[in-house]
Request: fold
Amino acid sequence: MQRRDAIENIIKNIDDELVICNIGFPSRELYDIKDRDENFYMIGSMGLVSSIALGLAISKPDKKIVIIDGDGAFLMNLGSIATIFSQHPDNLVWIVINNEAYGSTGNQETYAKNLDLKEIAKGVGFENSYNLEDIDFKDVLNKNELTFINYNVKAGNSKAPIIPFTPIQIKNRFMDVIK
Amino acid sequence: MNSTEAIFNGLKDSGIDFIVSVPCVNLTELLNLINNDDEITHIPVTREEEGIGILAGAYLAGKKVAILMQNSGLGNCINALKSLTELYEMPLVMIMSHRGTEGEGICGQVPMGKSTTEILTACNYTYFKPTTPEEAYENVKNAWKTSLEEKLPISILLEIKYW
Reply:
């Protein structure tokens, strides 16, 4: 299983949740699998996907937000886990697709291979921190609780196309759908 | 209206309702006022760049957003300002305590203090350096509107002598 398969599995299980997706191949693959107005694709600012989602989750408490993060991006903005845990929005599900690699730049190794991301989240205080293979994903998704999920996959990118929208188009349609 | 109230009133009168911060000693009173205001959501952050991400999400949800920080934090968030805020044309007000300016007692603040306006100029970002509370109030009150018009972040630099 590679990242694309993981994103397919995530999308298969979601309904009207807002999805904030990591920069690079993750966003391209999400676009290719299922483009929807509720997807926000990152085009720049690696590492900030969980922060964008936090600002959204606090401001839209009636919407469920799903983060598609990656291990390299997660490690780049590690302070975010302290802020998200402390703010504790119960409408946020944070999924880190963990391929132990900087996938979009050529699959160079990250330090994630030496780490247990689920235990990092637990150590911070997350009551709900799981490896995806240990849970019924749909059940966990349907709970109204702050959740962290480490999703182990093999490194590798699919042939997903470049997203044909401008950043402004991505922003505007996302803002229109959550109004 | 003292130096802190001028900033607070400007933020309130421009409708800012979502703020992230990394503190500066010169922002202490302002942060207290913001914490005690029920209409403003205030999220302390671990690093300024993280704050820029949070503000992007809040803006997508319809909030009017600002960051409070030292000018040192500007250096921590340049890429986010460029490839998130500017790229997606999201408005943003940046209230910065401008350390390393006249009267600075800590030498570590000086190099970044000297380069702050040049960094903003290089970014093509408009900044204001008010010297009185009246001027600061006007600058802050108009910043959100100006940011919407310019489609770029607007900075208010508050030098040591301002306070």
